[in-house]
Automatic annotation (TrEMBL):
Keywords: DNA-binding, Transcription, Transcription regulation. Signal peptide: none annotated. Residues 29-48 bind DNA. PANTHER family: HTH-TYPE TRANSCRIPTIONAL REGULATOR YJDC (PTHR47506:SF1), TRANSCRIPTIONAL REGULATORY PROTEIN (PTHR47506). It comes from Streptomyces albireticuli. It comes from the Bacteria. Residues 6-66 form the HTH tetR-type domain. Gene3D superfamilies: Homeodomain-like, Tetracycline Repressor, domain 2. PROSITE patterns: HTH_TETR_2. This is TetR family transcriptional regulator. InterPro entries: Homeodomain-like_sf (IPR009057), HTH_TetR (IPR001647), Tet_transcr_reg_TetR-rel_C_sf (IPR036271), TetR_C (IPR011075).
């Protein structure tokens, strides 16, 4: 007779995500995960695999929780949604008292240079964001919100890099840094 799981795998994955996001991959041991989740090591291994597999599953979960793609694909004017997203990234990065940053960006900095599986997930996330920005900017240009001479794909790539950079600066800069808002304002001026 098969044993039933003594914990909620969904809640455990969310809790693991929070711990990895707070501490990073290297600074989180399997013992930390066992203690934080309150789940036996054997149960974690049986459900999620090793620490690396659990981290990758947490990274996937983080990406699934993002609302950015939906925000950028709403009907109606597209440019206000792009502007709101950039401002939100700047504000969240400037006001991140815990200095957690973005889990995807943190993974890019910590793991992607030497972990191909993590690097692929980071690239997939960035590709999705860049595609959503490009689509929104193409709609904005077609609707007359963005000047006809502007390159939606180039602008989207620049905004993606800016947004990821804001997350890195937000982790290191004092809370409320004007640097992030000034950078967002300069980038948004390119959309005029």
């Amino acid at each position: 007779m098969a044993r039933t799981k003594e914990f909620d795998p969904d809640a455990a994955l969310q809790s693991a995500l929070e711990l990895f996001w707070e501490r990073g991959y290297e600074a989180t041991s399997m013992a930390d995960l066992v203690g934080h989740l309150g789940v036996a090591r054997a149960s974690l291994y049986a459900t999620f695999g090793n620490k690396h597999e659990l981290y990758l599953k947490a990274l996937e979960r983080y990406g699934e929780q993002s609302t950015v793609l939906e925000e950028l694909s709403q009907p109606g004017p597209a440019l206000p949604a792009v502007r709101a997203l950039i401002r939100r990234f700047a504000d969240e990065s400037a006001c991140d008292e815990l200095r957690r940053g973005c889990f995807i960006t943190n993974t890019a900095v910590e793991l992607a240079p030497h972990d191909p599986a993590a690097g692929r997930r980071v690239e997939r996330s960035w590709d999705g964001l860049e595609t959503a920005l490009t689509s929104a900017l193409m709609r904005a240009r077609a609707q007359g919100e963005l000047p006809a001479g502007r390159d939606p794909a180039g602008l989207a790539r620049m905004l993606l890099v800016l947004m990821q950079g804001m997350r890195v600066v937000g982790k290191a800069a004092p809370a409320g840094s004007a640097r992030l808002r000034d950078a967002a304002d300069q980038a948004l001026s390119l959309l005029d």
